[in-house]
Amino acid sequence: xxxxxxxxxxxxxxxxxxxxxxxxxxxxxxxxxxxxxxxxxxxxxxxxxxxxxxxxxxxxxxxxxxxxxxxxxxxxxxxxxxxxxxxxxxxxxxxxxxxxxxxxxxxxxxxxxxxxxxxxxxxxxxxxxxxxxxxxxxxxxxxxxxxxxxxxxxxxxxxxxxxxxxxxxxxxxxxxxxxxxxxxxxxxxxxxxxxxxxxxxxxxxxxxxxxxxxxxxxxxxxxxxxxxxxxxxxxxxxxxxxxxxxxxx
Length: 249
Known about the structure:
Blueprint: E1 2-6, H1 10-20, E2 27-32, H2 35-42, E3 49-52, H3 61-67, E4 73-78, H4 84-89, E5 94-97, H5 102-117, E6 144-149, E7 152-157, E8 161-167, E9 170-175, E10 181-182, H6 186-192, E11 198-200, E12 205-208, E13 212-217, E14 223-227, E15 232-235, H7 237-247
């Protein structure tokens, strides 16, 4: 498991490296002193896990996550206990208070291993591809994104998102029982999402094909799709033809 440490304290980073050294399956692939440095690092490496401080010069750890289009699993490491609830609201794996104890770190790493083991390995089925810039790499269903709507935050795996829908100049994201709004256009999302999983049904909606529950013919040779957990989506005539081609043998 590859790990990146983000902390403004050199001593804290050194201590975490030392603690991680006793776990043979853990490799520290980089360190950053603040959010800006972490963003640059995460543009070049894709670790499995982020050990992230909250209070840093400039932006907080939460603000760093909010700026990332995709993020690895996160364990917060901080000297402050008042942010624990907020940390778990963004679906962090764990929240470790400094000084970090070996036993607590071991338990947090066990959670990371368990969650990683539960995910399919995209490399096992994907054909080799030529290297591309990180900015053009599609976000797959296994990627995790940070979503913020006002004071509420979520850490969401894209496999859990069933629908993106235009709403009053924003895009609404459907996952679980939540419907947050983000300041992104569907055109931007269509360019960033893996087309093998996410399909542009019409001008207003992008659906996750793995959430399709039923399909029925609709007016003028179009289709109507019901997603598990709702809602129903009417596919435009042009996209209905593309949908049939996409899913036919």
